[in-house]
Amino acid sequence: MRPTLRLLDDGLIERILSEARDLLGSLGVEIHNPSVLELLGAHGARVEKQTARAFFDAAIVDRALASAPREFRLYDVLGAETHHFHDNAVHFTPGSAAINILDGDTGQMRKPATADYIRYVKVVSGLPHIESQSTAFIPADVPSRIADSYRLYLSLLHGEKPVVTGAFTIDGFTIMQDLQVAVRGSAEALAGKPLTIFSCCPTAPIKWSDVTSQNVVDCARHAVPVEFVSMPLSGFMAPVTLVGSLVQHAAETLSGLVISQTARPGTPVLWGGSPAIFDIRHETTPMGAVETMMMDCAYSEIGHSLGLPTQAYISLSDAKQLDAQAGLETGIGATLAALSGINSVSGPGMLDFESCQSLEKLVVDNEICGMTRRLVRGIEPRDDFPARPIFEELLREKHLLIAPHTRRHLREEIHFPGPVIDRANHACWIEDGSLTLGDRARHEVARLVDAYQPSRLPDEIKRELTRLMESEARRSGMDRLP
User: Fold this and answer.
1) Are 361 and 102 in contact (CB under 8 A)?
2) Could you tell me the pLDDT band of residue 199, with boundaries at 50, 70 and 90?
3) CA Rg value for the chain
């Protein structure tokens, strides 16, 4: 039996969705993109151009919900399936778009560079419990205009796992799409085997900017899966109650769904988000707060009730170092996410309110993800009945270390973590150098970098990726890539 978590009953879910629908019909959604407003108006929405608002009645929302896929799959650069977003299947990906990296040697946060990003891709390539890359942080040695496409370029050039990413500008989508088509060979092949998921973020309260709304439309027209990342801040840019924030989250996510499905019915979507409470003492948005995690799990329940796969920014920490707080907040988040059946869990490796990525934390978080995977497999009998023969052997042999039953089920029953997690006795720990968690994490990062094998993407495709990226860099005034 798979263990599960529920925070909302069916009646409360229904009321939250009803209130969200009412907001979309009565107050509408603010959209700062005339072409998107025109598109919605042509498909039945009431549009007020002077206030840049669109109003969605029940029919429009129902039509969007009916056309959104109940599941979809993701594929790596070689075309192998890596993800099936459906039911309660859980997949982990690193947190994304950090502006800092925690330097493993100095313990200080700093701006990342291209070399850091390549090292990150090499580490993620060797993490078995994290199935995708994300465009995890923003290299500071390229112009901001190409920061989105450059991160995707490095990910596709050096790694094989699919990528959770996003465009910072309207123009940025074109080159990012071209990079993906270069990998797949054609737009049709890419639509058949998606390589990326794009994050598309509404603005609180119930608003879409020019850039983000166009990103939703562009992704839809090219069959690129999107995750809607609604970010209500409880007590600041959303009601202070968790239920009130969930109403806002549902309204913002439904509005994105309508835009997406109007542009192209059948576009794959994730009902996602990155909400947080607002800590008025420090004027911060703690991602490690239990109420933040509760909102993530609750809105995932709402998404699943609509038959949609889900995503959440959870399994991360607000700590500034790889310390006990980092483990506490990340471990609780990953466990709650897995028990809630959140399909795409974004967050491993992140610190400091989503602003910093740490490779050392990422390898620790990989182990947390592996433990939660074992948890949700649950407990089931494995040749345990009748029990008498096993115990007769135990009494006879005085142990079951090499018993057929042990050899048959050891690996599937017991999860053995990697070297980051210390399970040796105290004497062995002393003999091995009395290494701290931080020491072991740094050693593991170095080991993964040394063990990295270059992507098996054909060289001619790698050259085409570089040609496309160099051309885009020249448009931004760069003579050559870092």
Assistant:
1) yes
2) very high
3) 23
Which two structure tokens, joined as six digits, stand for 434? 């009395």
Q: What's the length of the chain?
A: 482
What's the rounded Cα separation, in Å, for the pair 166 and 458? 25
Q: Which CATH number applies to 66-377? A: 3.20.20.480
Cα(151)–Cα(139) distance, rounded to whole angstroms? 8
- The per-residue DSSP string of 202-250 comes to -BTTTEE-HHHHHHHHHHHHTT--EEEEE--EETTTB-SSHHHHHHHHH
Query: How confident is the prediction for the chain on average, in pLDDT?
Result: 97
* Residue that the structure tokens 């123009």 belong to: 171
Hey, where are the domains in the chain?
Answer: 66-377
DSSP string computed for 405-417: HHHHHHHHHS---
Are 307 and 89 a contacting pair, CB within 8 Å?
no
By C-alpha distance, which of 295, 296, 323 is closest to 311? 296
E strand or H helix at 102 = strand 100-102
- State in Å, rounded, how far the first CA of the chain is from the last one: 51
Closest CA to 356 of 318, 391, 310: 318
Whole-model pTM: value is 0.97
